[in-house]
């Protein structure tokens, strides 16, 4: 019997197929999702993993067994599924394991309008029903079984994204895109069609075994091919998508990575130009450049914990126009508060193409500090090591502390955050300062304590 505690995470379902879950459990999840959401209809999409169509089909059988209809949009990116949920006004299920290795698969769930389903918003209830029904069997609903209908929304999705960004009149751009054999290979050609873009595709073949590299651009080794191709072709910009194409990373014309915090600041200024005085959400490991630049452009910021559920909650609560995370998730009010890397990419292309400078010079305006990047340390006792770090910095002049998410220590011209992983015995360190030398000193001092 499946151990659902191992596969039902804080925000989604994820595990190894068929070792940890399979189509029989997917069918139970479908029945439980329809029951908890009281849905009359559900939209379902899936990525290119070999197990995805079968799992999605089983989930659909579970949904229809409760009397709800199913619209299957087939192969899609996660943000395309969010679009369908918002556009059609239906709860949704996306079958993907994002950037995880090929043997994994999962389900990202949402209510109508792409509203997130997490532990506190229905996922715990879905798990409880699924656990019960794996023992007792799914009871008959007494309802007439629902229908299954196929629908292609890729063109509508692409058109909607392009309606949100003014790309008229941009200069011609050479754009290298590394889809990592993920769903970007499916969506990018349609989204960019008709734009003054010379597209250089890399790994657009849909292949859930990821034969070229992991579809995880957060890991620098997975950007190496893109960086080399940008330099080789003399491209203006390089874009890399993860497996389900909801995150987008950029490299400049030199092949150097562009900080997701700089992208957040750049897109924030564009959204504030359209929505003066708007609220911008950012998580606490995002660069201090973001709130500074937002304030300079007349906006206000709200700082949140790391994690998309916190961002989406604050987006809804504050009416924010945009939100960004340093993990390259970007959220838009006009996209149902959901994250879409593709829309952020269109903003980058519009900003780059509307002026003559290269991308490296353009983003330098939004990138004011030196940073360490995220550094992980395996520790036996996360709380004890965090307490030791706090003690080491206590009493220093001008130093402050907050515990919104882990421990953030702030000095006159620097800050660092040390936060525990929720799933592994790790502490994650991020350091930012005015210059690289200060970053290095702080990094080494904190790591010496953490790893003692």
TrEMBL record:
<keyword id="KW-0460">Magnesium</keyword>
<feature type="domain" description="Alpha-D-phosphohexomutase alpha/beta/alpha">
    <location>
        <begin position="263"/>
        <end position="369"/>
    </location>
</feature>
<comment type="similarity">
    <text>Belongs to the phosphohexose mutase family.</text>
</comment>
<dbReference type="Pfam" id="PF00408">
    <property type="entry name" value="PGM_PMM_IV"/>
</dbReference>
<keyword id="KW-0597">Phosphoprotein</keyword>
<dbReference type="InterPro" id="IPR036900">
    <property type="entry name" value="A-D-PHexomutase_C_sf"/>
</dbReference>
<dbReference type="InterPro" id="IPR016055">
    <property type="entry name" value="A-D-PHexomutase_a/b/a-I/II/III"/>
</dbReference>
<feature type="domain" description="Alpha-D-phosphohexomutase alpha/beta/alpha">
    <location>
        <begin position="6"/>
        <end position="135"/>
    </location>
</feature>
<dbReference type="InterPro" id="IPR005846">
    <property type="entry name" value="A-D-PHexomutase_a/b/a-III"/>
</dbReference>
<protein>
    <submittedName>
        <fullName>Phosphomannomutase/phosphoglucomutase</fullName>
    </submittedName>
</protein>
<keyword id="KW-0413">Isomerase</keyword>
<dbReference type="Pfam" id="PF02880">
    <property type="entry name" value="PGM_PMM_III"/>
</dbReference>
<feature type="domain" description="Alpha-D-phosphohexomutase C-terminal">
    <location>
        <begin position="374"/>
        <end position="447"/>
    </location>
</feature>
<dbReference type="InterPro" id="IPR005844">
    <property type="entry name" value="A-D-PHexomutase_a/b/a-I"/>
</dbReference>
<feature type="domain" description="Alpha-D-phosphohexomutase alpha/beta/alpha">
    <location>
        <begin position="160"/>
        <end position="255"/>
    </location>
</feature>
<dbReference type="InterPro" id="IPR005845">
    <property type="entry name" value="A-D-PHexomutase_a/b/a-II"/>
</dbReference>
<dbReference type="Pfam" id="PF02879">
    <property type="entry name" value="PGM_PMM_II"/>
</dbReference>
<dbReference type="Pfam" id="PF02878">
    <property type="entry name" value="PGM_PMM_I"/>
</dbReference>
<keyword id="KW-0479">Metal-binding</keyword>
<dbReference type="InterPro" id="IPR005843">
    <property type="entry name" value="A-D-PHexomutase_C"/>
</dbReference>
<dbReference type="InterPro" id="IPR005841">
    <property type="entry name" value="Alpha-D-phosphohexomutase_SF"/>
</dbReference>
């Amino acid at each position: 019997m499946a151990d659902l505690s191992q596969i039902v995470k804080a925000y989604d379902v994820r595990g190894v197929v068929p070792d940890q879950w399979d189509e029989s459990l997917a069918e139970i999840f479908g029945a439980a999702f329809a029951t908890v959401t009281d849905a009359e209809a559900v939209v379902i999409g899936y990525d290119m993993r070999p197990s995805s169509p079968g799992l999605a089909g089983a989930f659909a059988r579970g949904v229809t067994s409760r009397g709800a209809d199913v619209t299957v949009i087939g192969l899609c990116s996660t943000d395309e599924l969010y679009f369908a949920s918002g556009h059609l006004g239906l709860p949704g299920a996306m079958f993907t394991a994002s950037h995880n290795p090929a043997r994994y698969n999962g389900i990202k769930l949402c209510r109508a309008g792409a509203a997130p389903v997490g532990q506190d918003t229905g996922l715990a209830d879905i798990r409880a029903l699924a656990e019960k029904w794996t023992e007792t069997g799914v009871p008959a609903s007494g309802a007439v079984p629902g229908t299954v209908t196929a629908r292609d929304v890729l063109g509508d999705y692409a058109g909607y994204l392009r309606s949100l960004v003014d790309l008229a009149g941009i200069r011609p751009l050479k754009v290298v895109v590394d889809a990592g054999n993920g769903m970007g290979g499916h969506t990018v050609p349609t989204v960019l069609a008709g734009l003054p873009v010379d597209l250089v595709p890399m790994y657009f073949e849909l292949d859930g075994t990821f034969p070229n590299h992991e579809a995880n651009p957060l890991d620098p080794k997975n950007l190496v091919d893109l960086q080399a191709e940008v330099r080789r072709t003399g491209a203006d910009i390089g874009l890399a998508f993860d497996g389900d194409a909801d995150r987008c990373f950029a490299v400049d014309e030199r092949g150097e990575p562009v900080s997701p915090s700089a992208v957040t600041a750049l897109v924030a200024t564009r959204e504030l130009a359209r929505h003066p005085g708007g609220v911008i959400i950012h998580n606490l490991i995002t660069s201090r450049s973001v709130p500074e630049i937002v304030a300079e452009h007349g906006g206000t910021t709200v700082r949140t914990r790391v994690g998309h559920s916190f961002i989406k909650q604050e987006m809804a609560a504050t009416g924010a126009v945009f939100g960004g995370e340093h993990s390259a998730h970007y959220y838009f009010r006009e996209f149902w508060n959901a994250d879409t890397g593709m829309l952020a990419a269109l903003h980058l292309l519009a900003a780059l193409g509307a002026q003559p400078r290269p991308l490296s010079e353009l983003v330098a305006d939004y990138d004011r500090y030196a940073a360490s990047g995220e550094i992980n340390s395996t520790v036996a006792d996360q709380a004890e090591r965090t307490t030791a770090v706090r003690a080491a910095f206590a009493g220093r002049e001008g130093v402050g502390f907050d515990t919104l998410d882990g421990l953030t220590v702030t000095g006159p011209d620097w800050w660092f955050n040390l936060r525990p992983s929720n799933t592994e015995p790790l502490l994650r360190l991020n350091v930012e300062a005015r210059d690289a030398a200060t970053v290095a000193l702080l990094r080494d001092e904190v790591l010496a304590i953490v790893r003692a």
